[in-house]
Fold GTPase Era.
Amino acid sequence: MNCGFVALIGRPNVGKSTLMNHLLKQKISITSRKPQTTRHRITGINTTDAGQIIYVDTPGMHGDGKRALNHYLNKTADTTMLGVDVIVWLIDGLFWHEYDDIIFKKLEQAGLPVILAVNKFDKIKDKDDILAFIATAQHRYPFEHLIPISALKGNNLEQLESLIIKLLPEGDLIYDAEQITDRSERFLCAEIIREKLTRRLGDELPYESTVEIGLYQEKPGLTKIYAVIWVERMTQKNIVVGKQGEMLKNIGTDARMDIEKLIGQKVYLQLWVKVKKGWSNNERALQSLGFNDM
Ligand SMILES: Nc1nc2c(ncn2[C@@H]2O[C@H](COP(=O)(O)OP(=O)(O)OP(=O)(O)O)[C@@H](O)[C@H]2O)c(=O)[nH]1
């Protein structure tokens, strides 16, 4: 059988998390309409009769790395490409973006087999356009394969997986066949809370916010979780807490229900919102919030 590591790369909002969730048939990576929601690398594992694919989901790559957080995301995208066997580059629609030039450069440096997956195929009205686009794409880079997919509707995903498997090296299973992620439940809980924040607040959610799990205590029948939502300004805190704490309460209830499903037992979840000025622009503060924990 063939087993190995696959980096899923692409701009923010192209559908990386949606694809990952569909491929793994479980909710691991968070999805939202707001760009740049994936901040941590998440490994998803899919074992079939043909082999084992270990996905590495990267943060979107950004054109400008001025602020520390963007710089960090860029670096992560680079390191994710190291140590993988195949790269799947996800793009959205049939046109190139100015940032794609950066990706072409990174691909050349990596020198690995690349599959170009054109996502959101369901939104493309004239299917002939895809043939023309594929021809231009082949001029730009020697892609191993080009494939239109719809991560949302699940179209062509089996074909994508079989193309990936064929490009992986032959070998034994790297992880147990039942394992679907190497991330801790603690980490997944923080991701769930962040997803609920995004869903409830939409565009109002400050980009500079993050979730830190302070306490994670498992007891028979009940898991206690204390989490802090960090924001940069008092005004942002007020938005997250809402009138008479209503917003925070709703976010907590949404998150608790999903966490209970994830870990299969009752959860007591306590959320706090705290202000830490300038954290997203400060490398040291980022590290203290676990952003170097890769
Ligand atoms: N129509 C359509 N929408 C899609 C498809 N795949 C993803 N989307 C939507 O695109 C939006 C972004 O998807 P995500 O999966 O969060 O994107 P991402 O690449 O993980 O984004 P970041 O976390 O910002 O890096 C969501 O609203 C998805 O529902 C698709 O195949 N078709």
